[in-house]
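Here is one chain, start to finish.
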Amino acid sequence: MAVELTAPTGPVRRVSARHFVRLKLRVMGNNFRGQGWRVALFVGGALLGLWFAGSGFFLFASPGLAGSDRYATMVAAFGGGLLVLGWLLLPLIFFGVDETLDPARFALLPLPRRTLVTGLLTAALVSVPTITVLLALLGLVFTAGVLGGWSAALVALVGVLLGVLLCVAAARAVTSAFASMLRSRRVRDLAAVLLAVAAALLGPLQLIGVSALQDTEWERLDGISEVVGWTPLGAPWTAGIDLAEGRGWAAPVKLLISAITVLALLAWWSRSLESAMVGTASGGGTRAKGGPAGGAVSQLFPRAVGWAARDQFGALVAREARYWWRDARRRANLITIAVVGIFVPVLVNLGGSGFGTNSGQGFGQGAAEPSPVLVSLSMLVVGVVAAVTLANQFGFDGSAYAANVVAGVRGQQELRARMTAFSIYVVPMLGVVSIVIAVVLGRPGWIGLTAGGLVASYGAGLAVNCFISILGAYSLPETSNPFAMNSGGGVVKSFLTLLAMLVTAVVAVPMVVAAALLGDVWLWLALPVGVAYGLGAALLGAYLAGDVLDRRQPELLATVTPRR
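Its structure:
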């Protein structure tokens, strides 16, 4: 698809998909220039993706390597279907999508929607996740070739290419539509709840899946895999297998289903993309209330921080608290914390992991009694995940952080204010989690244990992420899409998140060790010790990292400012 842009002086240039690819590669090169650590992370992510690609290849090629078509359809349907679901859900829940080429920047150019969608889709295919998935899925081509010859391999290759297009188009269409909906405050609230519910289903579904795999005979899944193979989730992946197994009539039908699904997703993306490019207009002015100037200042303080003094610290807390509630990108992280806080402890303690204890101490195989050590470990995971949201807290601000630099805000005060504002929303959620988990486990007396472990790990996470957010900050794209990431940003985010979680776990692990050594005594000491440990770690982290922030403010501002 090519379009000729015209000007009063005549034709200027023909725009095609290759121009979008070249533009993306140039932007990626500019983002990596002078950022050696970012290049290293990108290379590390590419190597990790290559490892996943090799593992996936052998998984999908396993029926061909075994020389049997017994489980070929099952592997293709279920494996491919999970990939499609992953591309649909993961951008909404955690990783985000690559927005190196922000669609909003093309709003003033005379580009037809078809050209824009085609170009952005082609540019999206040039990414580490896409290439990783494509290499892994070549295992289906190998299986089809071994079982049915070159014709089946060719059909499988066409199906794999259609399936990859389906994955990318689905991720872009869903995130673009969701980002457009989030512009409305009412729809944003509803969408946030729906997203939380959808994410919360992952835990119970995993529990059901594990139980089903343990108790169900594999032969019973043949019928389910055949049904999945006729849906868009499995049609592109099973077309070559059908031809190899003698069902030649089914292959073109499934390829047609896949092609129609891709076209429908692109049409949906096209409609939502135009809304994302235009942006949102104000729905009306803010009503000004009468009263003295002090009343106007008070209106800038949300009710949750009405207690704060009207000074620099209070203003910083009010600003951050308001942003955490109104910024869709930040709210998505709050939803993730709420969901993870519930289903991770349930998954660990009731998910059939096989670990428990008879005496209430330590681990034991196959015991029915819940273990204080295992509960403390699950609380550590929740606290770590809750605090890791601040691993790139300055990246949320972007160039707006310049206001704090110009105002001369001290680093320690900056970090304490950000911790306070974030904790206004997170600490109540952690309190609810501690009560719910203790009740679900049938141990109401363990509320102190759960709450102490949560507060300790959360406070340790705040301290660690103070340093991570200063030394490992990266810019986020200037877009209304709350799920957008710069090219390579997903790799950077993954590595920094992993680093922050590992360091926080090491800092907070004394709480787990104490639960293992002190036994029932720890049930009484966990809450006061945990609160003291978490609060002390957070304050110490803010104190030490504040000096680092004071020295690195200009570099930090340059790092989090998006490059145009």
